[in-house]
Design brief:
Blueprint (H helix, E strand, L loop, with lengths): L1 H10 L9 H18 L5 H19 L5 E7 L5 H9 L17 E4 L6 H8 L6 E3 L15 E5 L8 H11 L4 E6 L7 H7 L10 E5 L10 H14 L7 E3 L9 H13 L2 H17 L14 H15 L1 H20 L2 H9 L34 H18 L7 H9 L6 H11 L9 H32 L9 E2 L2 E2 H73 L2
């Protein structure tokens, strides 16, 4: 018996490599972090295995850790039901000539039933197909298997498709799988391609038995075992225990029973199974992350292109031109000849034609504010096309270093708020301080000067009219003071008019220069405001995807660490 146990210990690859529960929980938590970052970013179908793992692992670890679920899986006629009965030493699972014989899973529980019932409820074995192995007559004969829950699965090659689906479901829930093959069909392509080859990351919880070994001549058994070992190595299951069993002879299951006893005693099968599941999931997700951290986001040149495209779509050129014209309009109205100012004010203000004041607007809630009902011209088809190309460039350059799956998420994020951009740009243009909220001080001085010379001209005119009136009434005309050879009233009238015209002529180039300066200032402020909109509505979502990618990448690395 000691020789048998020694061979089993040597055969189990993971027998001396214990899985630390804390390390496993940390890896599962890393998978959860990956899902939190990747959900909504990657196609849902790619994340199904990871979601299944997290849900299944969480449930399995909360159920009984004192029980080890072992499944006997095999093809029709492999004798797994006979092997199940031989291990239980009772006729529990039906055995017969008709195929398939096993249509539903049967379970046999060794030891205390506490926890086993909930575990079997989760696995989905019906109560009428559950059996308790021990009785008072057994004494301590079965003590070494206390905690074992042995399942006899349906045939995976059954002609009934429901049986195959049930096998696939149960294989994802059990802790250890004993693959039962027979001398006739051990090389069948179905079991190696569809099942054994898929279990190469679960080698620590996989065992293969060549059942019905008594049907082979003694000289043929080593050759068949060697050929089966070769096939297992090709499946990636090198080192997996391979035993020969005979259900009709109690001595023919000694090695298998010893392997199960050791598995139950270690209580590591559930941890190794989940560790293998993590390896499988991580391997399936590995192509979704790259080896290097991508750039933090779009570069300055790309962001600049986006800002220019947004400015065009927001009508910034039209607004800045209106600012220039509005400055000239208001400057002339404030510094021009007072006698024609009223006429100037009757003309519409170019900026107010766009429903813009040019002054800062306090916006407490941009989403609900009425600010933004401007009359800025709608973007042309060329401007809309330029904006679309700029957003595409942002997405393409930001996703250039990302692996498959993520570029689509970046593009979707860049365009996620495209429908909100027009209103946001309109509100921003309306709320931006264009620098026309206050009248410059020099306007006041020039305006005061114009009023002064105008009053002088009016005073001279009134003086002259008074003289004409007195002469018309036959009254003596008072002598006018003279300035040189020119009467003072005439000098006041003509000097006031000429001074007003001269002051207006001198002021005009200054107004043009200041209007251009106001236009450039408004352009800078609008560009900054539009850039902020682009950052919030385009760049920030893109940076969010890149941040989620970085989190997912680090989480997957943590999940891969043993």
């Amino acid at each position: 018996m000691s020789n048998v146990v020694g061979r089993i210990r040597e055969a189990f690859r993971g027998g001396d490599q214990r899985v630390d529960p804390d390390v496993l929980l940390a890896r599962l938590e890393a998978v959860r972090r990956f899902l939190a970052a990747a959900d909504g970013r990657l196609p849902a179908g790619r994340l199904v295995p990871a979601h299944t793992l997290v849900e299944r692992a969480g449930t399995r670890l909360t159920l009984s850790r004192d029980h080890t679920v072992v499944a006997l899986a095999g093809a029709t006629g492999s004798g797994k039901s006979s092997l199940f009965n031989a291990l239980a030493r009772l006729d529990l699972s039906p055995v017969g000539v008709r195929r398939p014989t096993t249509g539903v899973a049967h379970a046999c529980v060794w030891g205390p039933q506490e926890g086993a019932a909930r575990l079997l409820d989760w696995i989905g074995v019906l109560p009428r197909h559950r059996f308790v192995r021990e009785s008072p007559l057994d004494a301590d004969d079965e003590a070494a298997l206390h905690g074992l829950v042995l399942l006899d699965l349906p045939d995976f090659d059954s002609v009934q498709w429901s049986h195959r689906l049930e096998v696939d479901r149960l294989l994802g829930l059990v802790d250890l799988v004993v693959w039962v093959v027979d001398p006739q069909k051990y090389a069948d392509r179905v079991i190696h391609t569809n099942y054994l080859g898929e279990f190469h990351r679960h080698r620590d919880v996989t065992l293969v038995v060549l059942n019905q070994a008594d049907r082979l001549p003694p000289a043929e058994l080593p050759r068949v075992l060697a050929d089966l070992r070769r096939l297992l190595d090709d499946d990636g299951l090198d080192g997996v225990p391979l035993l020969a069993t005979t259900a009709t002879d109690p001595d023919g299951i000694v090695e298998l029973r010893a392997a199960l006893e050791r598995t139950v005693a270690e209580r590591q099968a559930v941890l190794r199974r989940l560790a293998g599941d993590v390896e499988t999931v991580v391997a399936g997700l590995d192509e979704l992350v790259g080896p290097d951290r991508p750039a933090a986001g779009p570069d300055e040149a790309t962001a600049g292109e986006l800002t220019r495209a947004l400015a065009g779509a927001a009508g910034v050129p039209a607004v800045t031109e209106a600012v220039r014209e509005a400055y000239r309009h208001r400057a002339v109205a404030s510094t021009g000849w007072p006698l024609i100012r009223g006429w100037r004010r009757l003309r519409p203000d170019p900026l107010r034609r766009l429903h813009l004041s040019g002054a800062p607007v306090e916006v407490t809630d941009p989403a609900e504010s009425l600010v933004g009902a401007t009359s800025v011209p709608d973007p042309t088809a060329a401007q809309r096309s330029a904006l679309g190309l700029a957003i595409r460039a942002v997405a393409d350059r930001a996703a250039a270093e990302l692996p498959a799956g993520w570029p689509a998420a970046v593009t979707e994020a860049a365009r996620s708020r495209l429908a909100d951009l027009p209103d946001a740009l309109d509100r921003t243009v309306a709320a931006t301080d264009l620098g026309l909220g206050r009248r410059p001080l020099w306007w006041r001085f020039v305006g005061a000067g114009q009023w002064l010379v105008t009053l002088a001209a009016l005073g001279g005119l009134a003086w002259l009219l008074l003289g004409y009136l007195l002469r018309a009434l036959g009254l003596p005309d008072p002598e006018h003071p003279m300035v040189g050879a020119v009467p003072l009233p005439t000098l006041l009238l003509l000097g006031g008019l000429l001074a007003g015209l001269l002051l207006a002529a001198l002021t005009r180039p200054i107004v043009r220069w200041a209007a251009g300066r106001a236009r450039r200032r408004a352009e800078q402020r609008l560009a900054a405001a539009v850039a902020a909109v682009g950052d919030e509505y385009v760049l920030a979502p893109v940076r969010g995807v890149l941040a989620d990618y970085a989190v997912a990448r680090e989480a997957l690395r943590d999940a891969a660490r043993r």
